[in-house]
Structures are given as structure tokens and as C-alpha cells.
Design a protein that fits this description.
Blueprint: H1 2-28, E1 42-48, H2 55-63, E2 72-78, H3 85-92, E3 98-102, H4 112-123, E4 128-131, H5 142-148, E5 154-158, E6 161-163, H6 169-190, E7 202-205, H7 206-211, H8 227-236, E8 240-243, E9 251-253, H9 259-270, H10 279-304, H11 307-329, H12 341-364, E10 367-369, E11 372-374
Parallel strand pairs: 1-2, 1-4, 2-3, 5-8, 6-9
Antiparallel strand pairs: 4-7, 5-7, 10-11
Helix pairs in contact: 1-6, 1-10, 1-11, 2-3, 6-12, 9-12, 10-11, 10-12
Length: about 375
């Protein structure tokens, strides 16, 4: 019995250490309000495929930025859309610094999104590259605020992304869960352990992208155009990586409309974890996953073997919920106006089975993305 308790205890130490590291990092974050007096020329790259519903809203939000128009360009890169996204874009664009381009058939053999971003970078003039998604909308001071985080040693900045407010319970649950992921990324970056970020809101020096050879060692993977790049830039030691904690930098995107779409998205995100170059990080992720595996194990042992495992199950679950609540609370008002307790409790109940499923599906299963069946 003691050996079983030890097996449960070790992953628990890793997981709670992970949570406290995030809390410590979030405590260190301070909002950036200063305006960078240096004006970089910036290229905003928006890869897209079949975004007819949102692409015009995205375009309009980018064309009214407070950053001087002669200091930025907007490049929408079409990834073989088969709807009217491209024609809508060309019809609605107003600024001379906005262009829509299509990836040639014979361009480099990369996964689709990385291919689009790489092609956009090659066609760009900016010293700083920002990437975002065509289903996002941006506040007017987004670009100016993101650029304010750069100094001479900064190579990569991750910005906040939130799901738009929803009156539906499923939407509220997704907003909390997604906000939690953003806060995890922010806390780890602030703790000098950059691990996750979201390509809907990242900025990096073109020089840094080229210095680490861009997507060269992960070009075959369908996901990871954001995290692998951030980790490589951080590992280079030549540049700093930051998280920009500011309401003016928050990019908004719709939550998934269906459970099926949510599952496909999370399978895609989970598919890259075992391909991180940092083997220590992979070990930590495995230990964290084992922490979640321990919950059904404790429940079974508590029913069939000893009540002590039920006590450990309840204790660890309550501690997990408590610490994660304080992490989520750090997202007010940046990512959500308040915490919907009904949505929070339901999301915590579903968290264990969701992580168990996502880990297995991401490691061994394929997924659907933008009408394509993709391999991890």
C-alpha cells in the first residue's frame, strides 16, 4: 500500500510544483503601459483557410490600428481556401498597406499553417513580425501595445487571447478553460520557463526567426508554429521572451460551436507535446499526465482495496481545484469579467477525463482541421 501511495505522491509533487510555479510567475507579471518611442516597421501576417464568416471583421480591426500606417503592413496569406474568403478580403480592404497573397503550389514542403506563415515572412518587409488568425478581432491599440514590449534584447512576445463572451454554458466553460491555458503560458514565461503560447497573438523579430532557423526542425508537424518557435528563441539565449500583460493587447476569437470542434482543436494542440526538444520538459509533462491518471486509479483502489485512497483522491482533488481557482482569478479582468462558478465547477469535474482523453488522442490519433484530415 505504501508503494502505491508513493507512486501517487510523486506525480502529485510535480503537478502542484507546476501550479505554484505558474502562480509565482503570474505574480511577477506587470502590465505594460509605456509607449515605445522607437518605431519599428511591422508586418502582420494572417494565414487563413475558409474564414468567410470572420475575415472581414479581422481585416477591419487591423486596418484601424493606432500605430502609424506607414510603419506597418498587413499580409493575409490564403491556404487554398475553397470558399469566398479571398474575394471578400480583396473587396473590403481599404489601406494600401494591406494585401492578400496565395501560397504557390510549389512552395516549401511544410505543414499548411507553417507554410503560409513562412511564405508571408518571405514576402514581408517588417523588422518585427506579428502573427494572428483570421477569426480574431483586435482592439485599436493592439499593435502599438504589442510593439511597446520590445527592447533591443527582446526576441519574442506572447500576447493574451480570449474567447468572446457567451451566454451559453458551453461557451463559458470554454472561456474559462482557454483562459486557464493562456494564464499557464503567461506564468511559465514570466518564470523563465516559456512553454506554451498562442499563434493568434505573438510577435517576434524576423532576425530571431532566421537565427533559430524558423520551423526547420519541426516543419512536418501540423501544429506548433508558435510554441516550438518561442522555445527555440528562448533556448538560443540571444533574445528574451516576454508575455505582454495588458488589456489593450487582448485578441478575441470565438469559442468552438460544437463539442466535436472543441475535441478536434484540443487533439491538434496536444499532438505536439511529445516533440518538444527539451527532454526535461517532456518528462515533466509525462509526470503531470500521470497525476491525472492517478485519479481513476485512486478511485478504484479506494473502492476495492483501502479507504485511504479515497481520502487521498478527495484531498488532491480539492487542493487542485483551490489552486487552479486562484490561477483563474488572475485572469480577471484581462480574460474574463468574472468567474462563473457553475462553469468553473463543471470544467473542474470534466478536467480529469478531458486531459486523459486529450493526451492519448494527441499522442496517437489524427485530427481534422479546416476541412483536412491531418496527421500529428
Amino acid at each position: 500500500m505504501y508503494i502505491l501511495l508513493l507512486i501517487i505522491f510523486i506525480p502529485s509533487v510535480f503537478y502542484f510544483g507546476f501550479l505554484f510555479q505558474i502562480l509565482f510567475g503570474l505574480k511577477r507579471l506587470k502590465e505594460i503601459n509605456s509607449k515605445n518611442e522607437k518605431k519599428y516597421f511591422v508586418s502582420i501576417i494572417v494565414p487563413f483557410r475558409n474564414e468567410s464568416e470572420m475575415i472581414v471583421d479581422c481585416l477591419k480591426s487591423l486596418e484601424v490600428q493606432t500605430y502609424p500606417q506607414n510603419y506597418y503592413e498587413i499580409i493575409f496569406v490564403d491556404d487554398f481556401s475553397d470558399d469566398d474568403s479571398f474575394s471578400k478580403l480583396n473587396l473590403e480592404k481599404k489601406l494600401p498597406n494591406t494585401q492578400g497573397i496565395s501560397v504557390p503550389n510549389d512552395f516549401q514542403k511544410l505543414s499548411p499553417k507553417k507554410r503560409g506563415i513562412k511564405y508571408g515572412i518571405e514576402k514581408s518587409q517588417g523588422e518585427i513580425i506579428l502573427t494572428t488568425d483570421a477569426d480574431c478581432v483586435h482592439p485599436e491599440e493592439w499593435l502599438e501595445t504589442m510593439i511597446s514590449g520590445f527592447d533591443e534584447t527582446t526576441g519574442f512576445i506572447s500576447g493574451p487571447v480570449k474567447f468572446t463572451n457567451s451566454n451559453m454554458l458551453f461557451g463559458k466553460i470554454q472561456q474559462l478553460e482557454f483562459g486557464g491555458l493562456v494564464l499557464v503560458g503567461a506564468g511559465l514565461i514570466s518564470s523563465d520557463k516559456p512553454t506554451i503560447c498562442n499563434a493568434a497573438n505573438i510577435a517576434f523579430r524576423k532576425e530571431a526567426f532566421n537565427y533559430v532557423d524558423g520551423y526547420e526542425d519541426n516543419q512536418h508537424l501540423a501544429s506548433g508554429d508558435d510554441e516550438f518557435l518561442m522555445q527555440k528563441i528562448a533556448k538560443s539565449k540571444k533574445y528574451k521572451v516576454k508575455f505582454l500583460f495588458s488589456e489593450k493587447a487582448v485578441v478575441q476569437t470565438p469559442a468552438n460551436k460544437t463539442v466535436a470542434a472543441f475535441i478536434q482543436q484540443r487533439k491538434r494542440w496536444a499532438s505536439k507535446g511529445l516533440f518538444y526538444n527539451d527532454k526535461t520538459l517532456i518528462f515533466k509533462l509525462i509526470m503531470i499526465y500521470l497525476f491525472f491518471v492517478s485519479f481513476p486509479l485512486q478511485a478504484i483502489l479506494g473502492i476495492t482495496f483501502s479507504l485511504i485512497f479515497l481520502y487521498s483522491f478527495i484531498s488532491l482533488l480539492l487542493l487542485k481545484v483551490l489552486i487552479e481557482y486562484f490561477i483563474i482569478k488572475k485572469g480577471i479582468p484581462l480574460l474574463f469579467e468574472n468567474i462563473n462558478f457553475r462553469a468553473f465547477i463543471i470544467s473542474e469535474i470534466l478536467h480529469v477525463p478531458y486531459i486523459l482523453f486529450a493526451g492519448i488522442a494527441g499522442a496517437f490519433g489524427n485530427f481534422e482541421w479546416k476541412g483536412r484530415n491531418m496527421k500529428r
